Amino acid sequence: MDPQLLQFLGSLAAILVLAGIAWGLKLGPERKLESEEEARRAAGEAVDGFDAIHLSLDREGRGALLSDASGKILLLRPHGTHFAGRVITAEASAKIDGDTLIIDTAEKRYGAAGLELDDAPAWVQRIEAIK
Fold first, then answer.
1. How far is the C-alpha of 35 from the C-alpha of 78, rounded, in Å?
2. Which H or E run contains 21?
3. Percent of the chain whose pLDDT exceeds 90
4. Which is more confident, 90 or 81?
5. For residue 30, what is the DSSP state?
């Protein structure tokens, strides 16, 4: 067999194996929230039983803020191909920087998130009211 053809087939096989591994690990492009229903589903996955009454999606689908009837606020942001959620505590802070609402959860492992929301000032008030 021609050495160049053998090299080509070996390279092709290696690429297919790596693609299979990436697919198996669910690696890929960042997921986006396309609808309020999808955000509610992601919130339910992050915090069991979270029932949002107020919800705002990032303009690009990169996350969401949700609040329930008791006043708890849940921040969703991408984490690989899933969304990670944190209930905002009194240690958190929020500020508006241009068109972006910056929420610092005060958790080292979760960190801060920036969302572009149409009603950002209302969320700053809700987050500050937790304190």
1. 15
2. helix 3-24
3. 64
4. 90
5. P
Token pair listed for 86: 């944190």
Alpha carbon distances (Å) from 130 to 56, 66, 80, 127 = 18, 14, 29, 6
Classify 52 in phi/psi space as left (phi over 0), alpha (psi -120 to 50) or beta.
beta
The whole model's pTM is what?
Answer: 0.76
What is the enclosing helix (H) or strand (E) of 40? Answer: helix 36-46
For residue 71 the two structure tokens come to: 């006043």
What distance in Å separates the CA atoms of residue 115 and residue 45, rounded to the nearest whole number?
20
Q: What's the pLDDT at 1? A: 79
**Would you list the domain boundaries of the chain?**
1-29, 36-129
In angstroms, rounded to a whole number, what is the distance separating the alpha carbons of residues 54 and 69?
Answer: 9
Q: Which of 59, 62, 124, 113 is nearest to 86 (CA)?
A: 113
